[in-house]
Amino acid sequence: MKHFSCTKSSWQSLQLLLLVCVAGVFLTGADAGSGDSRARFVQLDSEIQAIKEEILEINRDILQIEEMSLYPQGQQLIVLVSVADNSPLEQGTVSLQLDGQMVSQYQYSASEYATMREGGVHRLYSGRVADGQHQMQISVVGKQTKGDAFSEQRNVTFTKQRGRKYMELHLGPQADVKQPGLTIREW
Question: Considering the domain 73-186 in this protein, what is its CATH number?
Fold first, then answer.
């Protein structure tokens, strides 16, 4: 199976081709009378919408093929970050090491934390991982709503079996509700 990738330049080329086609159709229709121009404009608009839908469908297919080639036979690990609605964290950085190698680090702003408090989830990592046992080290450094600093580091051993593996890093209050905590959930 060939690997197909839609790069930024190929996407721009496709958009330019679409623009040239639409301009050519529009210019040939400009010679018609003014009564026909409105009908032609409506027709062109519907044709453009149909082309846009085709392009989006092709893009979805390309992304699906790309994912299948990157993560064959279900060797994908996805790590998500979520925040409880009553979390005392305001902003911070989450770092992820997998088997001793740094694979992802993301610094969240206050507005991103607010979005996650409302139910949003961030994909921190998506990568290829072989079946078997793996060691994950998570580090969270941030600031609480009261301005106090927060830092927590966790080591987790997990077993990756055939198929996709989802893990969620959930930031929320601990039992005393005053201190943030990190909960790791496996799906």
Answer: 2.60.40
